[in-house]
Amino acid sequence: MLRDESARLVLQALEKRDVAAGGVWSASPGMWQRYDKAWDGAAGSKGTSQLIGTIGTVYGTPSKYDITIYRVTVTDHGLEGGWTVEAICDDALQYADLSLASCPRTQLAAPGPDPFRRK
């Protein structure tokens, strides 16, 4: 989980490193994608750049300005290049001086009673 200040730092850094502007990240609310190189196709399209992995995020959770990372995937291309879940997360989180290992964890509440269970 990224607290508000860390979230701001990471989002600003990913925006500066956007694939359409010579960087390797494509970040939108809900999904951050890491590519192997900047997009080099016509009219700002992907071209020959390949996706390495994706970080699934939820903005505004657990509080208004926080971001929770809930899923990370690595493509076959990423695996072939030696990328791991930890490496992709660390690549994004470094801009807030964090890593996956040092990033605070969200405290989840215990689930309530099953509303569909018959008594």
Q: Would you mind describing this structure in some detail?
A:
With 119 residues, the chain is of the alpha+beta class. The mean pLDDT is 91. The chain has helices spanning 4-16, 76-80, 85-93; strands at residues 25-28, 31-35, 51-59, 67-74. β3 (51-59) and β4 form a beta hairpin. The chain has one domain (4-96): TATA-Binding Protein (2-Layer Sandwich), CATH 3.30.310. A four-stranded antiparallel beta sheet has the order 1-2-3-4. 23% of the residues lie in helices and 22% in strands. The protein contains three helices and four strands.
Question: What are the main properties of this structure?
Answer:
alpha+beta, four-stranded antiparallel sheet, 3 helices, 119 residues
Query: For the largest beta sheet, what order do the strands appear in spatially?
Result: 1-2-3-4
Provide the structure class: alpha+beta
Q: What is the correct CATH architecture?
A: 2-Layer Sandwich
CATH topology: TATA-Binding Protein
N-to-C SSE series? HEEEEHH
Query: Would you count the extended β strands for me?
Result: 4
How is the topology of this model organized?
Blueprint: H1 4-16, E1 25-28, E2 31-35, E3 51-59, E4 67-74, H2 76-80, H3 85-93
Antiparallel strand pairs: 1-2, 2-3, 3-4
Please outline what is shown here.
With 119 residues, the chain is an alpha+beta fold. It has helices at 4-16, 76-80, 85-93; strands at 25-28, 31-35, 51-59, 67-74. A hairpin with a 2-residue loop joins strand 1 (25-28) and strand 2 (31-35).
